[in-house]
Amino acid sequence: MRMEKEVYGDSEASFIEPQGAPRGLLMYYVLHKLSSKPAYGYEILRDIENKSGGAWRPGPSSIYPLLKKLESAGLVRASGEEGDATSHKVYSLTDKGAAHLANIRRKFATAGQKWESIGRIFVELVDPADVPAMISRASTVRFDLTRQLVESKLGALPKREMRYALEQYRLGLKRQLEWVDELISRMDKSSFEGGFKSV
């Protein structure tokens, strides 16, 4: 990782470090977290680490300077003890912060489409030896994320709209299963153990 930092700098290398995440995600999550209820800085850090299973671990040196900037910008409000005990300050979202969060959410939806396209480049970078483990892990993680997404937002959308989305998802799963069955069938018929061309 030292070489990546020397070439790209901290910002470009951070995403592939164990505690890293895309730039701007921490601010987005802080505003999102505070939109539900006020929280201490350390509560936000603990929540991120727990929900990511330790894959993302921003430290105090990341969260408190960010909270200070958000406070200066009028996006969050701090209350509590002053001094070096920053963990004793409770942060809440302001009306300006709520409006900014709504704007970020709109941009986040567009960014999701961009990441899907970038994923095609990621495919080229994967070592063939890592593919079997990645298939199993990716399918499980993606299903779990989809289930959490649907169940957490189930009551926020009209029943008809959610049902249509689930029917489309089911159709997509059916097509994927048909592709897997066809691929396994061709592998079983192939006499070449070293691999074969996909069509």
Automatic annotation (TrEMBL):
<dbReference type="InterPro" id="IPR005149">
    <property type="entry name" value="Tscrpt_reg_PadR_N"/>
</dbReference>
<dbReference type="InterPro" id="IPR036390">
    <property type="entry name" value="WH_DNA-bd_sf"/>
</dbReference>
<protein>
    <recommendedName>
        <fullName>Transcription regulator PadR N-terminal domain-containing protein</fullName>
    </recommendedName>
</protein>
<dbReference type="InterPro" id="IPR036388">
    <property type="entry name" value="WH-like_DNA-bd_sf"/>
</dbReference>
<feature type="domain" description="Transcription regulator PadR N-terminal">
    <location>
        <begin position="30"/>
        <end position="102"/>
    </location>
</feature>
<dbReference type="Pfam" id="PF03551">
    <property type="entry name" value="PadR"/>
</dbReference>
